[in-house]
Structures are given as structure tokens and as C-alpha cells.
């Protein structure tokens, strides 16, 4: 009992005091000061403020390293896979319970095995023209089905979550594959081949972040060859922002992360909606111009009708006025009677001519109205017909539409959207 009480009565240390003590132990060890460490660079990152962090790797052992911007000037450039000798002090990273090497100098000691393998593959694939833009295919403007090749995890979850928000109209098929470890490149290549046999518009190859070694399968030949021979366009979204792999170089399109891939597909939907809106506005404008033109034609015909109605009456009316004036100047009653008789004849003839002219003008007006009605874009719709369009273009041949595509039918009042079940050719 007394021994247990003694344990509880021992001195209590605060966390900061313990961490400070450990840091002092490391700094007091002369063997850990200005030490030179050789290893292979992995997980190289550029930090804010011009600092760099990376790991030195030997087998399965890792040593975290950091180069402050004040020490980065004059150091040779290096990248993941490079074999280097770094010199600095081993100190405690207090906020993460880690120790790390503060690098003040480094020298290259040769190219690491993975880096050498990467450079050799890159030279071979470039000589075959696999990186050429002319070989690559365009990403579909209106993808309806995509297949995601990935492992279950954060990367796939980010893609699916973002897709549900940005492009919910796109159906996602999922092919699970190992994306890390020995032989993962074979699994990924087989998954891409499976995706090529599926009725989809696009293959998305994605995985979340990882170290240079974790992501290395996406630099290997089986994955590269599978992307090149894929039956559908391939979009890659592998690793962190700033990572680049040979799979990205041969893919038809690449983005930095899985969520960026979903954002990109969502932007295609936005572009399609903008195009539909522009086409709709253009169609409305065209119909309005057509109607205005027909109204101008009708106005011109109306003016012509009025002119034709007045023209046959003008000359007889003037003749009657002249004859009446002459009659007023003549005194013999017989001649006056004769003039009156002729006046009545002319008046009767004038009325007959006017009726004929009016009937002809009315007939021409009716013909003009019929022509205008026939030219109206609403006339066929009023008779129960519909204007069917596909991707903003009027569809005149059923063979141009494929099963599953979305078409729009414009009616006299409103429009319908429908999906094609099957097409029937003319007998």
C-alpha cells in the first residue's frame, strides 16, 4: 500500500516540460548535430514561405527532413527518387511529437532506383510518341455514364461526393482495384481493360494522396499501356496537387485530385446548360424576326389592298364631276335628260366596278393570309405535330438518334423531354 502511495506522490510534469526535455536531449547529443545522412528522397513538398519538406528513405525506415527558406538558397535541385546526402541537426518537432532533420546542406549522391526506372520509362514512352497531344482523344461534351477505377477510400469518396453535388445526372460505375503495393500496376491495368468493355462514355482513373513510392504504380508500363489501348477516353486524377505521373502524361486528360475530376465533369454540365440557353435564345429571336417579317408583309399587302380599292373609283368619280359641270352649263331639257341618263349609267357601272375591285382585293387579302398562316412555325404545331430536336438540332431522321439519348419535342404549347427507347426505320 505504501509503495502504491509513493507512485501517486511522484512529481507531475507538464507536457511542455517533457517535450522541452526531449528536445534538449536531442540537441545535447553531439552525434545528432551536424550529422550527415544518406538516403532516397521521398514525398518532396514545397511549403508556404519557400520552405521544403521531404523524407529520406532507406528500406522501410524514414527520416523526416525540412529545409527552411533561409537555407534553401544555393542548394542543388533534387526530386523524388534522388539519392542525396543531407547535413543538419536532429531536433524535436514539438507540435507533432516527431523528430526531424533540419537540413542546412545537401549533395547529390546519385539517382535512386525508382527515379532511374522512371526516367528510363519516360524516355521510352516519349520516343514512341505516347505523350503527343495528337494521339489523345477529346473528353465527351455530354458524358452520361462514367466508370471509376480506384480503391475504396478517401479519393473515391471525394469523387463520388463531389459528383453528386456537381453532376448528379451522370451515372457512376465503380471498378475496385488495388492502387498501391507490389503488383498493383497489374490490378490497375486489368481494371482499365474491364472498363473498356463497358458501355460508358469515360474512364476515370483516380486515387488519393500518398508518398512517391505509394503512387509509383501509376508510372509503370502496365498502367500506361492499358490507358493507351483503352476503348474510351481516360481522365486521370492521381495523388496530391502538384504530383505528376506517366499515367497523367498518356491520359487523354488529367487533373490534380479526384475531387477536381468531379468538378471538371460538373463544369461540362454547366457548359451544356449555357449552350442550351444560348440556342433557346437564338431560336426565340429567330421566331420573333420571322413573325415581324410576316407582319411587315401583311401591312404592305393591306396598303396595296386599300390602294387597289381606291384606284377604280377615282377616275369614274372625276368623270362624273366633269359631266355634272357640263350638264349644269347646258340649257335644253332633252340634253339635260340625256346627260342624267348617262350619269345614271356611269354611276351604275362605277358601283359594279367598285364591287368587282373590292372582291378582287378581298380575294388577294385572303390568299395573303393563307400564305402567312402556312409560313407560320406554329401552324404544324397547331395541327398536332411536334418539332423534335437532339442536342439543339432539329431531328429529321430517326437513325440519327441512339437508344438512351435525351430528345426534346416542341408542341404548340410547351415542350416535352423524352428518352429514346428504340428507333424504327422507314419500311
Radius of gyration: 43 Å
Query: How do the SSEs run, as a string of H and E?
Result: HHEEEHEEHEHEHEHEHEHHHEEEE
Count of β-strands: 14
Structural class: alpha/beta
- Name the overall outline: elongated
Going across the major beta sheet, what is the strand order?
A: 1-2-3-5-4
The residue fraction in helices comes out at: 40-55%
The CATH architecture assignment of the largest domain turns out to be 3-Layer(aba) Sandwich
Write the layout of secondary structure elements.
Blueprint: H1 2-8, H2 15-28, E1 35-46, E2 52-58, E3 61-67, H3 69-72, E4 82-93, E5 98-111, H4 113-127, E6 145-150, H5 154-166, E7 171-176, H6 184-196, E8 202-207, H7 221-229, E9 234-238, H8 246-250, E10 253-255, H9 258-329, H10 333-375, H11 379-382, E11 387-390, E12 393-394, E13 406-410, E14 415-419
Parallel strand pairs: 3-5, 6-7, 6-8, 8-9, 9-10
Antiparallel strand pairs: 1-2, 1-4, 2-3, 4-5, 11-12, 11-13, 13-14
Helix pairs in contact: 5-9, 6-7, 9-10
Description:
- With 427 residues, the chain is an alpha/beta fold.
- It has four domains: 99 residues, Nucleic acid-binding proteins (OB fold (Dihydrolipoamide Acetyltransferase, E2P)); 136 residues, Rossmann fold, CATH 3.40.50; 86 residues; 50 residues, no CATH class.
- It is built from eleven helices and 14 strands.
- It has a five-stranded mixed beta barrel. Strands 7-6-8-9-10 form a five-stranded parallel β-sheet, with helices on both faces. It has a four-stranded antiparallel β-sheet with strand order 12-11-13-14, with no helix packed on it.
- β8, α7 and β9 form a beta-alpha-beta unit.
- α5 runs parallel beside α9 and α6 packs parallel to α7.
- The longest helix has 72 residues.
- The model has no long low-confidence stretch (mean pLDDT 84).
Amino acid at each position: 500500500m505504501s509503495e502504491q502511495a509513493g507512485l501517486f506522490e511522484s512529481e507531475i510534469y507538464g507536457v511542455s516540460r517533457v517535450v522541452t526535455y526531449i528536445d534538449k536531449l536531442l540537441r545535447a547529443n553531439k552525434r545528432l548535430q551536424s550529422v550527415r545522412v544518406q538516403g532516397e528522397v521521398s514525398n518532396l513538398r514545397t511549403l508556404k514561405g519557400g520552405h521544403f519538406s521531404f523524407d529520406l528513405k532507406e528500406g522501410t525506415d524514414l527520416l523526416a527532413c525540412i529545409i527552411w527558406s533561409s537555407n534553401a538558397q544555393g542548394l542543388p535541385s533534387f526530386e523524388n527518387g534522388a539519392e542525396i546526402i543531407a547535413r543538419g541537426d536532429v531536433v524535436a518537432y514539438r507540435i507533432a511529437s516527431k523528430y526531424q532533420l533540419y537540413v542546412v546542406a545537401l549533395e547529390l549522391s546519385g539517382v535512386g532506383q525508382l527515379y532511374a526506372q522512371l526516367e528510363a520509362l519516360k524516355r521510352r514512352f516519349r520516343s514512341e510518341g505516347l505523350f503527343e497531344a495528337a494521339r489523345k482523344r477529346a473528353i465527351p461534351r455530354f458524358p452520361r455514364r462514367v466508370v471509376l477505377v480506384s480503391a475504396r477510400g478517401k479519393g473515391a469518396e471525394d469523387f463520388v461526393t463531389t459528383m453528386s453535388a456537381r453532376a448528379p445526372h451522370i451515372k457512376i460505375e465503380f471498378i475496385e482495384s488495388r492502387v498501391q503495393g507490389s503488383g498493383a500496376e497489374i490490378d490497375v491495368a486489368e481494371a482499365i481493360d474491364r472498363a473498356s468493355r463497358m458501355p460508358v462514355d469515360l474512364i476515370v482513373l483516380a486515387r488519393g494522396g500518398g508518398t512517391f513510392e505509394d503512387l509509383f504504380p501509376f508510372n509503370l508500363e502496365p498502367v500506361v499501356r492499358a490507358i493507351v489501348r483503352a476503348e474510351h477516353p481516360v481522365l486521370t486524377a492521381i495523388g496530391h496537387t502538384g504530383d505528376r505521373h506517366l499515367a497523367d502524361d498518356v491520359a487523354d486528360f488529367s487533373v490534380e485530385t479526384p475531387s477536381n475530376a468531379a468538378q471538371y465533369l460538373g463544369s461540362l454540365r454547366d457548359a451544356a446548360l449555357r449552350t442550351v440557353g444560348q440556342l433557346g435564345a437564338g431560336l426565340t429571336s429567330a421566331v420573333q424576326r420571322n413573325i415581324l417579317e410576316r407582319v411587315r408583309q401583311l401591312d404592305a399587302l393591306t396598303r396595296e389592298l386599300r390602294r387597289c380599292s381606291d384606284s377604280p373609283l377615282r377616275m369614274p368619280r372625276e368623270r362624273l364631276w366633269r359631266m355634272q359641270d357640263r350638264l349644269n352649263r347646258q340649257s335644253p331639257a332633252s340634253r339635260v335628260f340625256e346627260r342624267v341618263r348617262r350619269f345614271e349609267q356611269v354611276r351604275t357601272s362605277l358601283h359594279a366596278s367598285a364591287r368587282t375591285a373590292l372582291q378582287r382585293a378581298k380575294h388577294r387579302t385572303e390568299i395573303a393570309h393563307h400564305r402567312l398562316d402556312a409560313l407560320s412555325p406554329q401552324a404544324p404545331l397547331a395541327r398536332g405535330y411536334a418539332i423534335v430536336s437532339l442536342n439543339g438540332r432539329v431531328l429529321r431522321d430517326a437513325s440519327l438518334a441512339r437508344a438512351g439519348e435525351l430528345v426534346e419535342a416542341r408542341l404548340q404549347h410547351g415542350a416535352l423531354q423524352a428518352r429514346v427507347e428504340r428507333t424504327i426505320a422507314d419500311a
